[in-house]
Amino acid sequence: MDRLSVNLLGIELDNPVIPASGTFGYGREFAELYDINCLGTFSFKGTTLRPRLGNPLPRIAEAPAGMLNAVGLQNPGVDRVISEELPRLKTVFRKPVMANVSGFSVEEYAETCARLDACDQVGWLEVNISCPNVHDGGMSFGTDPAMAARVTKAVKAVTTKPVIMKLSPNVTDIAAIAAACQEAGADGISLINTLMGLRISLKSRRPVLANVTGGLSGPAVFPVALRMVYQVAKAVKIPVVGMGGVSSAEDVVEMMLAGATAVEVGAANLADPFACMKIIGDLPAVMDRYGIDNLRDIIGGAL
Amino acid sequence: MKQVIYTILENEPLTADVCRMVLAGDNSAITAPGQFVNLKLDGLFLRRPISVCDLEGDRLTLIYKVVGRGTAQMRDMTPGQTLDALTGLGNGYDLSLAGNRPLLLGGGVGAPPLYWLAKKLIARGAAVAVRLGFNAAGDVFYEDEFRALGAEVRVATADGSHGEKGFVTDILPDACTHYFACGPEPMLKAVYRAVPSDGQLSFEARMGCGFGACMGCTCETITGYKRICRDGPVLRKGEILWTD
User: Fold this and answer.
1) Pair B90, B234: CB distance under 8 Å
2) Which amino acids of A are annotated catalytic?
3) Which range marks the domain in which residue B37 is found?
4) Do B103 and B82 fall into the same domain?
5) How far is B172 from chain A (nearest CA, A)?
6) How much of chain B, in percent, has pLDDT values that exceed 70?
7) What is the Cα–Cα distance from B196 to A166, expressed in whole angstroms?
8) What's the CATH code of the domain at B65?
9) Which of A49, A95, B128, B197 is the most buried if burial means most Cβ atoms within 10 Å?
């Protein structure tokens, strides 16, 4: 087990595999299928200050080697997450969880993070400044270095927990955004969120998604994600959490070679609910095949 | 929910675009009519949800309409091939509300999940009325199969080429103790308005995961937000909020 362990911002993870926000709910559905304590941790469903229903249906579309989603940050709001989801999670998950937070103003990000800061179960705050599916905030904070820095500063001021800023790939220079977050005090960077995409129904001649555009995820985005993780890892000194189309143990190793300290797995969980469990199970054999004694030794090995 | 590798026993067309697939495998996670399975198909990222039509021991019957790449691939599969399925998904119908004269209303490929339901209700001694709606005579399937179960069956077609001309709401019985409906949304809405008794309606949605994790199919109801895949696909009449 120790061969797989990594240290993410002061907290030891049994392995670097982390189900990504929005693909794992608050853990409940998966806890019915397998013991989710086998995970490094998981990043819970993007949480906002107030409850959100999200976007109209349809929210999901098939894509080549992937999918589009435009869920639009549906969540019960931070207070119910704290009063209902976290106590429920405690009964099935004994590790620190990564709290994923979204917002529509700098103040809102800070307020939501301040409330989650008080929760012992929360190990890290992953601040999503990259949701492509809401029109009144979200990604706009992640496409401008100055705005990204403002959110980072505001969140850092209200918490002592490690703050990981989750970046959007829908930018021309992701390294500049990452550097701005680091400069503003971020403890880590995670990337990539989904890539903006579109599908049109030939039958109706209209976009498939009610939101028109959606975020592309799945194996289709893996090389793009890997490239961006590599660029960001080169540009910053703080730890990077890599994600985007990861669906195998080999992908995890590749992400770590590109500079990721830990690796999130997203869309794969939706196609195969056992994906993360299988990836963790496959890691030792893949490490043996490529002569890797300890995963932590290969972080950034290709940089 | 359980992941099961099924073996295809039969796969035959019922009409020009509707097929029946019979599978062998572990059905233990499937507990109620109205539930569905989510099938992994080659070359497609997302699984394809198909409702359970019938279940007997380790035999599982699915009826599906060929509407896109996934269902076209299913049509071309042959006996002996295997299918990876997540089983026992969705809430299914609550049979305890049926009473002694339940009414089952199906439109098109909404009819299949009512078959196992009818079978179970008849086994409990209920006098089951079935009303099926199709577009035209060539689209009709399972009329005789429902009748063979002992249900009182009437069929309507939109163009009048088989049974009565019109919709299921044009051939309603005088009374029922409870109704169970499955079909396209316009039909469900018409049923909701036309049938005075309490009922349960099964909804369709484009799903991501099919087991409640991704929030890809959430709708708003009188009793709160519901995930069609997990808290549905069956909703109680009293909780439905129509969007238009």
Assistant:
1) yes
2) 131
3) 2-89
4) no
5) 31
6) 100
7) 52
8) 2.40.30.10
9) B128
